[in-house]
Design goal:
Shape: globular
Bound molecules: alpha-D-ribofuranose, calcium ion
Strand order of the largest sheet: 4-3-2-1-5-6-7-13-10
Structural class: alpha/beta
Helix content: 25-40%
Distance between the termini: 24 Å
Largest sheet: 9 strands, mixed
Radius of gyration: 18 Å
Order of helices and strands: EHEHEHEHEHEHHEHEHHEHEEEEH
Number of helices: 12
Number of strands: 13
Strand content: 15-25%
Length: about 300
C-alpha cells in the first residue's frame, strides 16, 4: 500500500492540497514543514489551524527554516502575512513529532511504496538526499515547481519554489534516485479555480465553502493584480491530481537542471548531456474535468472521520 508524505510551506494552495489529501486514499505518514511562503513557525501554526478545521492531527516534522545557502524570501504579498489569507482560523497546538530530514530518510527506508509530494522549496529533500541518497531509490517524488516555457511568477525566469532555493532544486532534480514527476507553472497556469467552484462546493458543504472563501480571498485578489485573472492557480493540489487522475494530464520525459546564477536563479534548464536522468514533466491538462473532480472531492465529507 502506498504511503504518503507532504513536504509543505502552507500557504493557501498548500492548504487546499492538504484538504484534498484528507481522504482515505491518502494514508499520510506525516507533514515535513519547510520555510517558503511563510517562516517555519508560521507554517507550523497553519498546520495546527488546518488540523482543527479538518478534525485530524497529522504528525508534524520540522524542517529547514530557510534555503541551504541563501536568505529566506517569503510570499506574504500573495498568501497573506499569516500564509492563509489573513483568515485568522482558530487552532490548538499539539506536539511536533520530530525533525523532517531524518523523518524523510527513515520513511523512505521503511516504506516499500512511498510517494512524497513536495509543495515548497526543496530544501528538506536536498538535505535528505545529501545525507542518504540511496534511501530514496524506490520512492516517488512529485514536485510542484519550475517554469519551463512560461514566464515565472517570482522573476521572469523563475517560479517561487525554485527561486527561493535554487541550489536545493538543482540537487534534487539531478540526484533524486527514484521516480520523479515535475508539475511546473506551465501546467498549473492552465487551470483557474474561481469563486464559481467555491460556490458549488459551498452548496454541498457549507463549512468547506466558508473555509475556502476565507483563505482564498486575498490570494485571488493577488492573482487579479499580478496575473489579471478572475480566480487563482491551484499549483500544489495539482500534484495530488497528477497522482490520482493521471488520465487528465499529458507529460513528456526530459532531463533538467536549475540555474543558481544570480541573474537567472531558479530558472529550469534542459539537460542534454548523455545519461542525464529524465523526469516526467507535465505540460497539458483537461481543465473542466479537473475542476469538476475538485468540486466533487471537496464537496463530500471526509471518510477519515474528520470534521470535513
Ligand atoms: O509558485 C507556486 C508555489 O510556490 C506553490 O507551491 C506555492 O504554495 C509556493 O510554495
Ligand atoms: Ca507551496
Amino acid at each position: 500500500m502506498t504511503k504518503f508524505i507532504i513536504d509543505t510551506d502552507p500557504g493557501v494552495d498548500d492548504a487546499i492540497a492538504l484538504v484534498l489529501a484528507r481522504q482515505e486514499a491518502y494514508p499520510i505518514l506525516g507533514l515535513s514543514l519547510v520555510a517558503g511562503n511563510v517562516h517555519l513557525e508560521t507554517a507550523k501554526t497553519n498546520v495546527f489551524r488546518l488540523a482543527k478545521f479538518l478534525g485530524r492531527k497529522l504528525p508534524i516534522y520540522l524542517g529547514s527554516p530557510g534555503p541551504i545557502t541563501r536568505p529566506l524570501e517569503t510570499a506574504g504579498e500573495i498568501h497573506g502575512q499569516d500564509g492563509l489569507g489573513e483568515s485568522n482560523l482558530p487552532y490548538e497546538d499539539y506536539p511536533v513529532s520530530g525533525e523532517a530530514v531524518d523523518f524523510l530518510i527513515r520513511s523512505a527506508q521503511e516504506e516499500e511504496d512511498l510517494c512524497i509530494f513536495a509543495l515548497g522549496p526543496l530544501t528538506n529533500l536536498a538535505l535528505a538526499l545529501r545525507k542518504n541518497p540511496q534511501a530514496f531509490e524506490g520512492s516517488r517524488l512529485i514536485i510542484m515547481g519550475g517554469a519551463y516555457q512560461v514566464k515565472g511568477n517570482t522573476s521572469d525566469l523563475a517560479e517561487f519554489n525554485f527561486y527561493v532555493d535554487p541550489e536545493a532544486a538543482d540537487e534534487v532534480l539531478r540526484n533524486f534516485p527514484g521516480d520523479l514527476d515535475l508539475v511546473p507553472l506551465d501546467l498549473t497556469s492552465q487551470c483557474i479555480f474561481s469563486k464559481r467552484e467555491i460556490a458549488k462546493i459551498a452548496r454541498a458543504n457549507p463549512a468547506m465553502g466558508n473555509f475556502l472563501e476565507s483563505i482564498t480571498r486575498l490570494y485571488m485578489e493577488a492573482y487579479a493584480r499580478e496575473e489579471g485573472i478572475e480566480g487563482c492557480y491551484i499549483n500544489d493540489p495539482m500534484t495530488l491530481l497528477v497522482y490520482e487522475r493521471p488520465d487528465l494530464f499529458s507529460y513528456e520525459r526530459l532531463a533538467f537542471r536549475v540555474s543558481c546564477q544570480e541573474e537567472s536563479r531558479g530558472q529550469l534548464l534542459r539537460r542534454k548531456d548523455q545519461g542525464a536522468k529524465t523526469l516526467r514533466i507535465y505540460y497539458k491538462l483537461k481543465e473542466k474535468e479537473i475542476l469538476d473532480y475538485l468540486v466533487e472531492a471537496m464537496s463530500r465529507k471526509s471518510d477519515q472521520g474528520g470534521n470535513q
